[in-house]
Amino acid sequence: MLVYLNGRFLPREEAKISPEDRGFLFADAIYEVVRFAAGRPYRLAEHLMRMRDGLTALRIAAEPQFFPVVAARLLAENGLDKEDALVYAQISRGAAPRAHAFPPPGTPPTVYAFARLTDPPPAPEGGRAIFANDERWGRCDVKTVMLLPNVLASQMAREANASEAILVRDGIAWEGTKANLFAVTGGVLRTAPKGPRILPGVTRAAALEAAAGLGLAIEERPLAADELFSCEEVFLASTTLWTYSLVEIEGRPIAGGRPGPIAARIRETLQKEFRGARVGLVT
Ligand code: PDD
Question: 94: CA distance to ligand 1 center in Å?
Fold first, then answer.
C-alpha cells in the first residue's frame, strides 16, 4: 500500500514519523475522513472547510489544498479509483522536543494520508448501542485526533456486543463515538445543535438538507438520553455509515426493534445525491 507523508508517496512500511511528533505526544493534530466512489468525492468542499476551521482553531500552519491532489493519487496508485473508498488525512503540529507550548514558528506540520476500501455496509437489521459518559474535551466541534474517550467508549460498546456508544454528558445524548445522532419524535427530526459539544458532521448537514427536501419538520435541539426510548426512530449519520438505525439502546428496544423509514429515506437521498453529483475531485 502506498501512503502519503510530508510531500512524498511511499510504501506504508517506509513511512516513518518521529516519536517527538506532537500528534503522538499530545494528540496535537486534526484529521478528516472523506468518502469516494470511483474517484469521486462526497461533499469534498465541506470536509476541506472543516479541515481549514480546525487548522485555524488550533493555529496549525497548514492549508487543506494538498488534499484533493493527494487523494486522487492515493486512490489511483492503490487501485482504488474504481472502488468505494475512504481517504484519511491527518495533520499534526509537527515534531519538536517535548514542551507543551507550541514549537518554534517554522516547525513543519506532519501531513499523513492513506486510502482504503470503505467498510461493508452495516447490517440492514439495525444496530445496538449503549450509553457512555461523554468525557471528551470541551471542543468536540474541532475534528482533532484527541479521541481517547471515543476509543474507550467504543471498546465498551464492543464488549457489550453493541455497535456504537452514545456519548452522554449532563443527561444529554450528544452524538456517537464516530457519528452524529438523530431521532424522530412526534414526527419531528431532532439532532443536537452545532456547538462545542458535537462534531459538525458533513453527513449531519447533508441529512438535515435531505430531510428538509423531504418536507420533514426539523429541530436542532439537544436530546435527553431518556427521551430516546420513546422516539419513533434513532439513527447515526457519518461519512462511513451514511445513516444507520439503532434498534436497541442499553438492552431496550427502540421503535419496536426495527430500522425506521426516515433513516432509510435520508440514506437513499444522500446516496442518490452522491450518484448524481458531477463535482470532480480537483475543484
Ligand atoms: N468520524 N461525530 C464524530 C465524533 C465523528 O468522529 C464523526 C466522523 C462524525 C460524523 O462526521 P462526518 O459526517 O463528517 O463523517 C460525527 C469519522 C468518519 C471517523 O472517525 O472515522
Answer: 23
Taking the CB of residue 67, how many other CB atoms lie within 10 A of it?
A: 23
**What are the structural domain ranges in the chain?**
2-117, 127-275
Q: What is the pTM of this model?
A: 0.92
Measured in Å, residue 113 CA sits from the centre of ligand 1 at: 17
Q: What is the CATH architecture assignment of 2-117?
A: 2-Layer Sandwich (3.30)
Catalytic: 143? yes
Compute, in angstroms, the gap from residue 105 CA to the centroid of ligand 1.
30
**The CATH fold of domain 127-275:** D-amino Acid Aminotransferase; Chain A, domain 2 (3.20.10)
Ligand 1 contact via 243 beta carbon (within 6 Å): no
Q: Can you list the positions of beta strands (E) in 79-186? A: 84-92, 110-117, 127-133, 164-169, 172-176, 180-185
Q: What are 58-85's pLDDT values in tens digits? A: 999 999 999 999 999 999 999 999 999 9
Residues 46/160, Cβ–Cβ less than 8 Å: no
Closest C-alpha residue for ligand 1 atom 3: 178
Whether residue 172 has its Cβ less than 6 Å from ligand 1: no
3-state secondary structure of 46: helix
